[in-house]
Amino acid sequence: MTRLIQSTTRNISSKPRFAWQRILRDPFALLIAFACLGLFLCSLREIGQYFYPYRWHFTVGLAIGLVGMLGRVPGIVYRPEHRCLTAFILVGALSVLISPMPEYSLARLASFLIMYVALFIGGWSWLKQGRNYELVAKLLLLTIVLGAMWSLYFLVQELPGFIPGQRVTGAFGKATGTGSFAAAGLPLVLWKVRWSQGRSRVFFLFVLGVLLYLLIFSGGRAAIIGGLAAFIVWTWKHWRSGRLAIFLTVSAIMFLFVSGVLSLDMLPDYIVREESLPTFTGRIPRWKVGLQLFMESPILGHGYGMTRYVRMYEEGERLTGVIVPGQVTLLDVIPGFGTARLGRMTLHSDHVERLMEMGILGYVPFALFWFFILRRIARLFWLPITYESSLAVALALNVAYVFLDSFMHGALFAINAPGVLIAWFGIATFMAATEKLQVYPRANLCVSSTSSTASIPVPAVLAIR
């Protein structure tokens, strides 16, 4: 550990300087920062009531800021992730034709298309310029600090002791949301601790402690597994001399569990919840319903967004599901114009929902999108540790948790959930960070010549071969 601290101290001096002041000189960047903070504040207890009614204003502001960046770039470089999402949208358009609620499906698909254009074209082009991706990473870090400190405020008020008698809900009002927040935010705080010193490091160590407390006592089992796995992977990557100690510690804990010395009974009941383990807190029956509906229309599904109108009924000892269309028009989906109550059903899995809504044709590009994202993550871990690669690893672990969470929640396509935009923005930021490190396979990039308007093809340098 001493070597780790000494190595960190030596490397901090080589950390590039970052100027927050340039945000104030860029109206689009200022709009993006304002919108992201507004969307995050929408989800906080007590103060969220003042921001949530304006969530769509923040969403529109974010879209305007990101699309506005398109006017500043000479060209757009598309990657396989872009092509996968484009194919996903095209299949979604086909699924609208067979949807029992075509206007609703079209409106939902249009909202995803706007998100794609804003984040993965406008935002992507802007993030690749200079160190803008670091700006967004630090903006995300700011939201993590705000969430941790606001959660601490409620912990001090509500908890009678250090070990709570029930799942903590922190600043988000729900234990599941608090656990997901802690697991997703942990890697960026670890990065900040790694590249800080003095009072700054002490402060972020404190924030790290708050996040670990929220992670464990939120009782979110998937969040605990994902968060602790990210902590171990981060430490393994950045503490090379301690890898043997990490391996022996993890092995010893596993051995003690297998031998019966340690058991889940030692943990609070609200973490273990043995009665809900066989069904994953009711998720497995919902997954079965979704897969049953998928088998009814396996090629193109039942229509984009139709998960929200699934109704489940008991038949004997099992659940069965049917789609019950609602009386919804295109205007009802547009905030401020509609009067109909929209469906809110979820199958608690982005993967099951994509299969049910868009069939095999829609799920394949969605799965390929994650394949290319995970390939970026795998290549990243072979790079030597620098300030930039360390930030990319933190973003990678954040995105890896989003991938894990996509199996347990319908998080990436939720309705009226500001965190959805932040999650997609985090994915685009991670992609931009890896581009700066040149971890992408060989490609021909066009660079304008300074002496003429001709383009000169230049091969991208491979950092990993």
Description of the structure:
The protein is mainly alpha-helical and 465 residues long. It is 62% helix and 5% strand. It has helices at residues 2-12, 21-24, 27-41, 48-51, 55-68, 80-98, 102-127, 132-158, 175-194, 198-217, 221-238, 243-259, 269-272, 283-296, 330-333, 350-380, 387-408, 418-436, and strands at 310-315, 318-323, 444-448, 455-459. The strands form 2 sheets. A two-stranded antiparallel ribbon has the order 1-2. The protein has a two-stranded antiparallel ribbon with strand order 3-4. A hairpin with a 6-residue loop joins strand 3 and strand 4 (455-459).
Summarize the structure.
The protein has 465 residues and is mainly α. The two termini are 31 Å apart. The chain has helices at 2-12, 21-24, 27-41, 48-51, 55-68, 80-98, 102-127, 132-158, 175-194, 198-217, 221-238, 243-259, 269-272, 283-296, 330-333, 350-380, 387-408, 418-436, and strands at 310-315, 318-323, 444-448, 455-459.
Question: In percent, how helical is the residue content?
Answer: 55-70%
Q: How many strand segments?
A: 4
Query: How are helices and strands ordered from N to C?
Result: HHHHHHHHHHHHHHEEHHHHEE
- Return the domain count: 1
Layout of strands and helices, then pairs:
Blueprint: H1 2-12, H2 21-24, H3 27-41, H4 48-51, H5 55-68, H6 80-98, H7 102-127, H8 132-158, H9 175-194, H10 198-217, H11 221-238, H12 243-259, H13 269-272, H14 283-296, E1 310-315, E2 318-323, H15 330-333, H16 350-380, H17 387-408, H18 418-436, E3 444-448, E4 455-459
Give structural attributes.
465 residues, mainly alpha, two-stranded antiparallel ribbon, two-stranded antiparallel sheet, 18 helices, 4 strands, 5% strand, disordered C terminus
